[in-house]
Amino acid sequence: MNTHTPIARGSEWTFKDLEAYESELARVAENYKLDTYPNQIEIISAEQMMDAYSSTGMPVGYHHWSFGKQFLSTEQKYRRGHIGLAYELVINSNPCIAYLMEENSLTMQALVIAHACFGHNSFFKGNYLFNTWIDASTIVNYLLFAKNYVAECEERHGVETVEYFLDSCHALMNYGVDRFRRPAPISAEDEKRRQQEREEYLQGQVNDLWRTIPKKEKPKAEEWPVFPSEPQENLLYFIEKNAPLLEPWEREIVRIVRKISQYFYPQRQTKVMNEGWATFWHYTLLHTLYDEGLVTEGFIFEFLQSHTNVIYQPPFDSPYFHGLNPYTLGYAVFSDIRRICEHPTEEDKQFFPDFAGSDWLETVHHAMKNYKDESFILQFLSPKVIRDLKLFAILDDDSEKEIEVTAIHDEHGYRRIREGLAAQYNLSEQEPNIQVQEVDLRGDRSITLRHLQHDRIPLAEDVAKQVMKHLHHLWRFDVHLETVQENTPGTKYICDDDSVRTVSTEKAA
Amino acid sequence: MAFLIIDRRPNGKHKGAVNRQRFLRRYRKHIKEAVSDAVNRRSITDTDRGDEISIPRKDVSEPQFRHGKGGRQRQVLPGNKEFLTGDRIARPPSGSGTGGGKGKASNTGEGMDDFVFELTQQEFLDFMFEDLELPNLVKKRLKDTEAYKLVKGGYTNDGIPARLNIVQSLRGAHARRIALGGAIRRQIKGLDEELKSIEGETGSEDRVREIKIELDRLRRRLNHIPFLDEFDLKYNNFIQQPLPTSSAVMFCIMDVSGSMTQDIKDMAKRFFILLHLFLKRNYQKIDIVFIRHHTVASEVDEEEFFYSRETGGTVVSSALKLTDQVIRERYPTSDWNIYVAQASDGENWADDSPQCRDVLETSILPKVQYYAYVEINSGEDQALWNAYEEILDKYSECFAMKKVTEASDIFPVFHDLFEKKSA
Asked: Across the interface, which of A391, A454, A455 has its CB nearest the CB of B78?
């Protein structure tokens, strides 16, 4: 098979080399049925990479001090050698933009192209979450719209006012996602036009909600419907639509933050899968090139060294341990799916009767398209991977003196570990469950949030109080937050104009 | 597969510069405190550089709802070596740096370390001298013409080939060709017409031949007009324009008598350095004159000024007289902004202090922009201080005095002296 001459030699890259690699990789990727957006590869310097970092990977973003903070902290760590910068950064857009660092060696560039331009890119295009939530072709335009809109607001209302308002929105950013409804994608021009319509319309609507002119037939107090009729989980959406005193431009900014949060939501839910998929494919694609004789031995050695670094998982007691490495876990699961399909064991047939021995390419594509981290792990984490990573589950109950080991990599433990790990990637379990419960329409217009407590895990109190202040800034009337554990009310916080105070409700005891 | 490779490196760096400035502005207060601490901490020689600034992490945090500690928390971890199901492990002490073996902090990712970042030298100085201004910043005559700027100044007839202006040259050549050839062309035109009207008529053969010869001669003359001639060439002209520079001179006056210990001199030096840095931000050119004195004053270089020691008594007025003399000789007040900083431990020959006051009042203060006196002395007021105090009110515009007891006072005192006065 080794009949071809290598694409390039040496470690210095040229633009011609990159093109050659891109087209060879594209050819191989097509054989593996990887469906991608067109690639746009951009070569950048280290400093530009830090810029890209600080705007959390958005190619254009509105200005805010928090991005500056991010930049300073990245710069500091980079200068002191605490962190290396990523070799690449890829943006979920159509065309798919991948940033490559100029310092990378030729091998690294090829690795990165395989990883980002074919791995991540096909994931963005194929995974159901991205398809449902994001229209990749409009995102850059939308971000541009957002940037210009915020800049315009700063001109009209002052930088500090806008900045403070954005702070408040950012505090609730993780609660600005819509988990059920599908947003209709629209372009930037539409967005601008619709924004103006919305501005006028919304203000009218809101005023109506708070209308004080008495109606002819005043309903009796108990007949007033509870508002909202069902608890609302998307706090920012609720604020945008219902906060009584917001100016139109403020509503639009709430919307912008909400939309951006929504844009990142699928990525937050598919970290393991996305990185695992990209790692699996850079490994497979580059090995295919090697088999065809298109890359040299030296290339493949350098590649393997980086690859091994990327998927290294330090054990829990190592000083380098910072949680599970999503690259390791995802790569391990995808590789193991291939193994189970190609060389199933008895155990595999017992655990995965559906696909053990089936066509591996079809199975990995199916897994990539139809799952998110939580369901992916629940479905595909095999006993072999659990054994390889030596996973174990612990229970830390603060009413017990010691931590209990509840499962290890043995016959009894596989399923429990799998469920436990899946839960660990369930965002709605990792973030406190907080929803809008009620707005006091007749009284003091206060808004009541309910925190549904689970396993007695409390809110981090000091930050919760700060977030409440931000919420107060948006809602402009009192904010109540009550914790409920299995229908038993717990602590209650009230945020009024000056302070947050704790009101304990002991009556249920 | 369509694809595109773009080289973004030439694009502007510092895309995040706006965000960086936003951050600095927002934490101005914190940063200023840190800067002022840093100035006091630093050794004398490196006041002029950027620094690491740290701000308490909690002040820059962005709050989000998250889980706290407690309750029943489950976790799956890698790298089991010895545990079996049902094992009980002692809880690791919270906050221990075991790399998150318990990993509870993993979802918050927040240590309680300070937020540390680097300020550039420029930013550092900006924060250091924020709210300060030079008193009586009178614009003196723009005299020093050391710096020139080249500006375009039309065209010249001679120059170097690199400055050849092609458009102007060709335009000139064109005009010349039209001008020189005009008369000939007119003649040709006339003869052409005549030729047309008489051609073919009988008896005009002689005339036709004559005209043809004439036309031939004229056309040859026309062809001899050169396309481009030496004097068509035009060159871009540049003229030197003097850049407006404002210059200042700073007099450092220090007592080096036996009572001034090295510590006191270090403090004085700090003050002088701050003043120099500050002046540098306002003026492009600064001269420094070092004058030291015990019983007699002399102008010295920097090294000698700070490090050599003398013994003996103190006659401050000698230094003031020398200052006055130097100003008169070398720094005419019409051309120079003059600043004087005097540092002393306050000791002086008993009869000399009133004399100092007089010299100051009559010959120095009318000439200077600002005179700052710093007394490094933790004890009682000395005679010099008292003498100076007498004229303080009268010249509050351009004269200030402060007392310093230890090194950490220097920056605050400096700050006080040059604080922006609300007009």
From this structure: A391
Chain B residues with beta carbon closer than 8 angstroms to that of A51: 13-16
pLDDT averaged over chain B? 79
Is the Cβ of B113 closer than 8 Å to some Cβ of chain A? no
DSSP B16: T
CA distances from A393 to A397, A421, A489, B107, B109 (A): 13, 8, 30, 17, 21
Q: Which of A305, A328, A358 is the last residue of a domain?
A: A305
Q: Does the structure show a pLDDT above 90 at A345?
A: yes
Q: Are residues A264 and A144 in the same domain?
A: yes
Q: What is the DSSP string of A228-266?
A: SSS-BS-HHHHHHHH-TT--HHHHHHHHHHHHHHHHHHH
Best of B4, B9, B19 to disrupt the A interface (most A CBs within 10 Å) is B19
Whether chain B has a CB inside 8 Å of the CB on A390: the answer is yes
Cis amide prior to A95 (ω within 30 degrees) = yes
Chain B contacts in chain A segment 443-472 (CB below 8 A) = 453-461, 463-464, 466-467, 470
- Domain region containing A49: 15-127+270-305
Q: Is B319 exposed, middle or buried (0-12, 13-18, 19+ CB in 10 A)?
A: buried
| Residue of chain B whose Cα is closest to the Cα of A75 | B117
Backbone angles phi, psi at B196, to 5 degrees: -60, -45
Q: Do A178 and A280 share a domain, yes or no? A: no
Q: Tokens 């019409």 label which residue?
A: B334
Q: Are B392 and B401 in contact (CB under 8 A)?
A: yes
State the pLDDT at residue A180: 60
Q: Which amino acid is at A278?
A: A
A60 lies within 8 A of chain B by CB: no
How confident is the model over A32-49, as pLDDT tens digits?
999 999 999 989 888 888
- Rounded CA-CA distance A422/A418 in Å is 6
Measured between CB atoms, does B98 come within 8 Å of chain A? yes
> Between B6, B80, B84, which is nearest A390 by CB?
B80
Residue at token pair 């100029």: A102
Does residue B334 surpass a pLDDT of 80? no
Surface-to-core class of residue A394, CB atoms within 10 Å of its CB (0-12 exposed, 13-18 middle, 19+ buried)? buried
What integer is the mean pLDDT of A214-243?
Answer: 76
pLDDT of residue A13: 86
In chain B, how long is the greatest CA-to-CA distance?
Answer: 138
Q: Would you say A312 and A258 are in contact if contact means Cβ atoms under 8 Å apart?
A: no
| C-alpha dihedral sign at A448, A453, A458, A460 | negative
| A95 contacts on B by Cβ (under 8 Å) | 2, 4
Amino acid at A396: D
Count of A-B CB contacts under 8 Å: 284
Does one domain contain both A277 and A368? no
Q: Given the structure tokens 């020093």, which residue do they identify?
A: B144
ipTM more than 0.85?
Answer: no
Alpha helices in B79-231 (DSSP H): 121-128, 166-198, 205-223
Q: What is the domain count for chain A?
A: 4
